[in-house]
Amino acid sequence: MNAKFYSLHNEMQTNDAKCVLKEMVNTFHWTDFEYILDVGSGPGDVTFNVIRPLIGISSYIVGSDISDDLVKFANAHYSSDNLKFKKLDIESYDIWDNWKKESFDKIFSFYCLHWIQNIRQATVNIYNLLKPGGDILLVMLAKNPLYLLFKIMSRLHTWSAYLKDVENLRSPFQTSMSAVQDFTRILESVQFTEVSVVNKECKFTFSSTDSMLKLIFFFFFFFFLDAIQAVTPFLDKIPNNLHARFIEDLQNCIPQCSFTNVKEDGSWEVRYTLIVAKASKMNNH
Ligand SMILES: C[S@@+](CC[C@H](N)C(=O)[O-])C[C@H]1O[C@@H](n2cnc3c(N)ncnc32)[C@H](O)[C@@H]1O
């Protein structure tokens, strides 16, 4: 993922993180000198712009990501006295050489956990990283819309060879009829308490403030595709001379996806469901 590109086009994700945190911020108990972890912090802008303003000046945030490039980018652009970024694969069995158990008072994660395959191991790691008495807030997509889109693309002869890894985009709950219950069960089984998992139905319209009417449809379309390109891991694999054709086929497949529709003004409305999970770790005392 191109860090700069993603951070310029993650309007939808930033908006959701702000919105969920605004609703939930008062349900947390905030104190001084807290250590806070953001799992899957990507380029670091959401950690810096959305989470950091909530914490006290004596508290400290660690942003973490599986990607070396993103950790490097985030440290170069968004680190500060009380915010640093560090590599972490949250679903790995083997993180304890570089991470200490029971280090964090709060753990947040936005738009990350639908990318991973082993949600149970990620949950176990999050539990072990959390201090007793600590809280977590995890926000992920219930289904990954890109999986549906690339699944359609992978059936096209030209692209099937490049889209072999499409199954890696399956969210942990892609085919589940009861993601809320499934994730509640996982959180409870690793001993989290006060578990609350809910679905949040969301809509986002990709629109422009640009007033050149005749270009509106065009612009809306490409704005939406820009947002998709920001997270697609596949473009890197496709030869440069085929990129334009790939994008063209991608745009032709979008109307086949049930989660989008073109509005009368030419803008694209995208519908999606988030899983919002809050839970705590029992205090030892
Ligand atoms: C869509 S970005 C979200 C970035 C940011 N949290 C936001 O809300 O804009 C998802 C991030 O999760 C990271 N990620 C994917 N799998 C991961 C894993 N197993 N452990 C840690 N981070 C992971 C990706 O590298 C990517 O930076």
TrEMBL record:
<feature type="domain" description="Methyltransferase">
    <location>
        <begin position="36"/>
        <end position="142"/>
    </location>
</feature>
<protein>
    <submittedName>
        <fullName>Methyltransf_25 domain-containing protein</fullName>
    </submittedName>
</protein>
<dbReference type="InterPro" id="IPR025714">
    <property type="entry name" value="Methyltranfer_dom"/>
</dbReference>
<dbReference type="Pfam" id="PF13847">
    <property type="entry name" value="Methyltransf_31"/>
</dbReference>
<dbReference type="InterPro" id="IPR029063">
    <property type="entry name" value="SAM-dependent_MTases_sf"/>
</dbReference>
